[in-house]
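Q: I have two molecules that I believe assemble together. Could you output structure tokens for the complex as a whole instead of separate predictions?
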Amino acid sequence: MQRYFIPASSWNENKVVIQGNDIHHITRVMRFVSGDKIICNSDTGEAALCEIIEIDHEQVVAEVLKWLDEDVELPIKVAIAQGIPKGDKLDLVLQKGTELGAQGFIPFQSKRSVVVWDNKKAEKKLKRFSKIVKEASEQSHRNKIPEVKQPMTINQLIQESLHYDMKIFAYEEEAKVKDYRTFGSILNQIDFGQKLLICVGPEGGFSSEEVNELKSNGFHAIRLGPRILRTETAALYALAAISYHFEEMET
Amino acid sequence: MQRYFIPASSWNENKVVIQGNDIHHITRVMRFVSGDKIICNSDTGEAALCEIIEIDHEQVVAEVLKWLDEDVELPIKVAIAQGIPKGDKLDLVLQKGTELGAQGFIPFQSKRSVVVWDNKKAEKKLKRFSKIVKEASEQSHRNKIPEVKQPMTINQLIQESLHYDMKIFAYEEEAKVKDYRTFGSILNQIDFGQKLLICVGPEGGFSSEEVNELKSNGFHAIRLGPRILRTETAALYALAAISYHFEEMET
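A: Yes, here they are, computed for all two components at once.
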């Protein structure tokens, strides 16, 4: 069933008032009429089966038929810090990362980022990012839309990392050192509800200064398999492995 | 270091004769000259550190300096059978699936495939597919290039599946039945070297006839996390989970 994320301010007891871009989708793309059923998600995580009771070009009103008791969120809270990559790779990370359960995304300017974040285009870009994660949340039936933060420097990212219970970064060289800890041993240490920050470098990986800085600030280096992954594949591997570990491994 | 897959027929004791498209990459893209070092992979899985000793527009000759004792292949052999999806999604599955260690790909015509495989364009398409998996193999430092099979019908796929030790298909509805077996319990049953076939439906998923047919031919239905994944994301989740299970979980 089609699903829409509606801000909490648009809910009034058992009525939902839908406005903005969703109107086009409801009336033109899906061609819904009064009496049709949709699922509405509040941005606080609740979801309800609703029936459309009023429909026009300005707004759609839907009535709650039944509150849904569903939760498909990952049992741990995962944020992806992605070194700003070239082209539209960040779009792919946002779309697929949302499908795979990320709770947030933090683009950051890494030393080897070829692309420099353009503040003049920032507003437009962040608007596109919001659209991508909202649509991917609806498509994948998420309870919550992930947050996309403003791009930050690596120093700001390290400040931000103080809010997390565990911090890791993708760095395949690390697997060659003696006291290497596997990704599995890290995940075994995380309890349900805890916050994990996963940091992925841009195309050229992290510089050695960045590696040292991350390590001295409590980030563990992990390997994501022995093959060399492109930057946009690394976060997807990490999220799939986390889902497998916490949601699909029990026998 | 840059890596090239060179057919076994181009190896002569400790010399490798490189021809075709790789010449452009070596001379124009990488601007290599005599004395530069590259890694050459034979399509039988061996790899060697080589030095370029002759270079012109027709061919490049490289000499083996050292045979490399590296193996980054997944410990189990995984083939992805992908219901033919829309647009360029199959390209993404091939590229990312190669990075993540798939040993082969089998496109198949599923009942809900919107796109019908056009036999007139088949040669051109398969050529592009070969290029994608070759380049992704080089980039991810694979020992072997995955094979992309000619598209087949679901009945041909079921015939093909007789060559596999374990067969699964992505079908989230299955998680709701009582005797559901998790993805983890399936992977626990597979030994190193065994062959696993993973079958993913196109955008609309499998029809109920296809589900019944797969089940009655020994395919196990599995869930890839509780969120709804797009068709092109499913294979990537499965491969990342397999890598995690067999390569990164041990503590």
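A: One point stands out. The CA atoms of residues 27 and 56 of chain A lie 8 Å apart.
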